């Protein structure tokens, strides 16, 4: 993942090549860009509003995503199951080795 001139990471390229990125150093803008790039453009604003950076994203529980972000249940479930949980799992695996 490349660092852009504004200090944020290039999250879109890692989504496109099928690899899960490590969000532990992402700024809030990187989290927002990640969810926009994965098709959750409307819901990405909730991460901005709640100031969720990469470290916060890795700490989020299912309940945080479903109730704390004030987004509709359907997208919230997909965001947690298909994005937040896999990112957390990948992060834990990469730090365990």
TrEMBL record:
GO biological process, alphabetically ordered: negative regulation of DNA-templated transcription
SAM domain segment(s): 26-74
GO cellular component terms listed in the entry, alphabetical order: nucleus
Region annotation Disordered: where it falls in the sequence: 1-22
Compositional bias segments (type: Polar residues): 1-17
UniProt-recorded Gene Ontology molecular function terms: chromatin binding; histone binding
Transmembrane segments: none
Superkingdom, taxonomy of origin: Eukaryota
Protein known as: Sterile alpha motif domain-containing protein 13 isoform X2
Lineage start: Eukaryota, Metazoa, Chordata, Craniata, Vertebrata
């Amino acid at each position: 993942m490349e660092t852009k001139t504004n200090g944020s990471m290039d999250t879109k390229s890692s989504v496109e090549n099928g690899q899960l990125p490590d969000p532990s150093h992402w700024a809030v803008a990187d989290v927002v860009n990640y969810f926009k790039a994965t098709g959750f453009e409307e819901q990405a604003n909730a991460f901005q509003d709640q100031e969720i950076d990469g470290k916060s994203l890795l700490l989020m529980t299912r309940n945080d995503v479903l109730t704390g972000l004030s987004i509709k249940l359907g997208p919230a479930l997909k965001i947690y199951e298909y994005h937040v949980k896999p990112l957390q799992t990948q992060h834990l695996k990469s730090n365990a080795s």
